[in-house]
Amino acid sequence: MDSRELLVDTMSELMWERGYADTSPRHVRERSGVGQGSMYHHFSTKRDLALAALERNIADLLPAASELDGPGDPMARIEAYLMRPRAALKGCKVGRMTQDPQVREDPVLLAPVARAFAEVHVSWVRVLREAVAAGQLRDDLDPEQLAHTLMAVLQGGYVLAIAQQDQGPFDDARAGALALLRAAKPNPKINRRK
Amino acid sequence: MDSRELLVDTMSELMWERGYADTSPRHVRERSGVGQGSMYHHFSTKRDLALAALERNIADLLPAASELDGPGDPMARIEAYLMRPRAALKGCKVGRMTQDPQVREDPVLLAPVARAFAEVHVSWVRVLREAVAAGQLRDDLDPEQLAHTLMAVLQGGYVLAIAQQDQGPFDDARAGALALLRAAKPNPKINRRK
DNA sequence: GTCTATATAATGATAGAC
DNA sequence: GTCTATCATTATATAGAC
């Protein structure tokens, strides 16, 4: 693996573990073993390296979300994505960036995060519409809203899990969301006249 | 206002705005106007000051959550708390701490956050149980889980809103959660024999 | 591309006078 | 309690040789 790739790899890990502001060029050098000269040869600032690492972290995450787009039963896809194994105590590589003060105030660093979430939102909306169309979900629910609700359940689940240093609250949050979705099946239509 | 209180006040603001790791003693001095000597007279480390500021931020937040405990219609209390005005782009003073690398690795700083969330969870569980008892919510839903789901919706809503620099996703997330709760009313019992 | 040396500013304090 | 001075360490690079 060449130095450049090694730097991006290492910075990606550190940004997941410690965020951007509190990760120093020194951390990156020490973990990667790449020297000072090499580092600033490939990336002229810490921010440049962070941008590459962030794109990498997003690229890592988006394929999982496209599981929502796959064929087959919509509700089953929703369950599969929601319940997919996730290390709650590590948090979300991408979501974490929104809480980093130096990312928050830097539109260039925030932009890829916004794009990534927007993309996931599109997938959620699609599968939720399909669930409504398939009669698995009441048609008075708004898929756009619900998509944000379910994304928030995951992002917020990480927060709760880290606070308690326990995966439990994360698993509760998503199980509860799934239970609500299941409870929101359309009512069987009884005594309905043409 | 005396120096000590001014320091805690200022640190509380800064921890909400920038977290702990990326807030320096200098930030605190400059914003508060309190001198170096005073600062280290009252708090011997940055961490000590942060601890006091964190307790203050928690104390600010808990009264709102006790709105859930109040008397009256359970579902109305749920809606009121969920829909209460919140500046989504500022994020949660308490939840934010879970994403700060230096808080995360410091059990002493993390403990108050865990306690605060645990306390809010208790209030949520109680009101959800009441909603079930009042026939406003299906009795096959687990209040413990659902409490985590709803807390996560709020915490995650902040993440989405900050990512998009738009309050919209936060409002969507909570409105969607409320819609799901409403859709999870027990079915009217038809043809049920004694 | 990589290495070592150097540089400026900020961080997180401590010391001691008033 | 507050002030000013000082300090060791780290952050974030630059410079220039190899």
UniProtKB/TrEMBL annotation, chains A, B:
<dbReference type="InterPro" id="IPR036271">
    <property type="entry name" value="Tet_transcr_reg_TetR-rel_C_sf"/>
</dbReference>
<feature type="DNA-binding region" description="H-T-H motif">
    <location>
        <begin position="24"/>
        <end position="43"/>
    </location>
</feature>
<dbReference type="Pfam" id="PF16925">
    <property type="entry name" value="TetR_C_13"/>
</dbReference>
<dbReference type="GO" id="GO:0003677">
    <property type="term" value="F:DNA binding"/>
</dbReference>
<dbReference type="Pfam" id="PF00440">
    <property type="entry name" value="TetR_N"/>
</dbReference>
<keyword id="KW-0238">DNA-binding</keyword>
<feature type="domain" description="HTH tetR-type">
    <location>
        <begin position="1"/>
        <end position="61"/>
    </location>
</feature>
<dbReference type="InterPro" id="IPR001647">
    <property type="entry name" value="HTH_TetR"/>
</dbReference>
<dbReference type="InterPro" id="IPR011075">
    <property type="entry name" value="TetR_C"/>
</dbReference>
<keyword id="KW-0805">Transcription regulation</keyword>
<keyword id="KW-0804">Transcription</keyword>
<protein>
    <submittedName>
        <fullName>TetR family transcriptional regulator</fullName>
    </submittedName>
</protein>
<dbReference type="InterPro" id="IPR009057">
    <property type="entry name" value="Homeodomain-like_sf"/>
</dbReference>
